[in-house]
Amino acid sequence: MITAQMIAKAAQEGESRSQLQSYDNNTADRYVVFLDIMGFKDRVARTGHDELLSLLNKFNNDITNYIRKYKGSLELTQFSDSIVLFSSDDSESSLKTLAEITSGIMQTALMQPVPIPMKGAISRGRVTCDIPKQLFFGQSLIDAYLLEESVNYYGVLVHHTAERSVINLNCDLFKDVCAPLKCGQVSHYELSWYLYSEERAERDKQLDKVRNALKGIRCTVSDAPRKYIDNTLRVISDNYIQN
User: What dihedral do alpha carbons 64, 66, 71, 76 form, nearest 10°?
Assistant: First the structure.
């Protein structure tokens, strides 16, 4: 994941630069979501450039149209295999909106003609987000990236910097689960994106679509990548039974 490593390095360098130059107009306490497209390098190697470009363009258009419904309540940047979302502040309403949008993006990605499974993390902290200059830095960006690297399923975990906010929010999209990490099973709050539906009555149908899409990915991978599918289905099963 060269791109993601570059992001973290740039964020760290940005912290040192911030002592010399002020970016107050674009600096705020925010929530950050870092999402990683799984198997991207393999897809680049196995898919024609034009075909992959068409796939990514469609995905980008779909999530852009989805986000438009929220009328500019966050900023999104996408490059190579990484998608980063920045809330405008760290209010409860911003966290709830970010949770809904991230859930929608995760579902939209999985429902593409060629599924685009992702994993990620949510953090909270002071971040500079200057879209016109493409300038992004802050410790929470690093925190989200590093936690995402450890996630061992198609999940979105909550970094400890955002955990108290999640608990206080009392939103049924966030649940304390036994999450598969590369170091083993660890208790973490996760964003249960697979449970999100604009109409609660449609939740079961949406969940069936997610499960079927995950099972469909099995036909495209072997060996270690299947662990992500198995782990995700296991977390969904354990989590949804509790509802």
Answer: -40
pTM score, whole prediction: 0.84
Q: Does the CA dihedral 80-68-106-161 come out positive or negative? A: positive
Ramachandran angles phi, psi of 67, nearest 5°: -65, -30
Contact 215, 230 (CB under 8 A): no
For strand 118-130 and strand 27-37, is the pairing parallel, antiparallel, or unpaired? antiparallel
Q: What is the pLDDT of residues 12-54, one digit of tens each?
A: 444 433 332 333 458 999 999 999 988 766 766 677 788 777 8
Domains detected in the chain: 2-241 (3.30.70.1230)
| Cα–Cα separations (whole angstroms), residue 111 to 157, 168, 176 | 21, 31, 26
Instruction: State both tokens at 213.
Output: 């899409």
> What digits encode the pLDDT tens for the residues 67-122?
888 876 788 888 778 899 999 999 999 999 999 999 999 999 998 888 889 999 99
